[in-house]
Fold:
Amino acid sequence: MSSNAPIIIAVDGPAASGKGTVARKLATEFDFAYLDTGKLYRAVGLAVVRSGGDPEDEDAATDAARALDLQTLDDPELLGDDAASAASKVAAIDGVRSALLEFQRNFAASPPDGKLGAILDGRDIGTVICPDALVKLFVTASVDIRAQRRHKELLNRGTPSIYPRVLDELKARDARDMNRATAPLKAAEDAVVLDTTELDVDRSFAQALRLIGGPVREALEDADGA
Structure:
């Protein structure tokens, strides 16, 4: 990494593992730009569904990805189950991934607001989007714990939720994400694994800092001295 290159942190992991919370807290800690790449796929999937299309239709999904208005990433419906399910389906389509690849890499290469670094969280950041990231964190947890978290999150938002259904949906999403031909969900070979099964939010963040904080702080010191 050259002295003026942004510091990139890649955070990957399955749904409801806590990766988004950890990534946001890391972004605040280091004052880095943050991108939840999963919202890109949720926005594409939801756009297809709203148009009456099938998220597994390659042409419809690819067209939606190419026409994506990033301002829609603030749409509260992106947090719903329909968007989540559609996102996993469109993410398996090569055309969609290609259409969104450039945006994600541009965000990492030129973080907005003059930030010194960028944190991207998703499922293929460390393996595909930013394989040269300074540090890579793979956040995981048991599927039962992840389902409990997702179930509680939905109830807290006032969204009806049935735990067995949430568990089945997470298992199905895991299978789709891990077995797709293009950019399957997996930890990069040089990623540090953070298992949050028995950790709350604060302990997960503290452990993440212990795992990757050193190299990031060193890079920031180098940037300040450049």
Remarks:
- Strands lie at 7-12, 33-36, 117-122, 135-140, 192-195.
- DSSP finds nine helices and five strands in the chain.
- The chain has a mean pLDDT of 93.
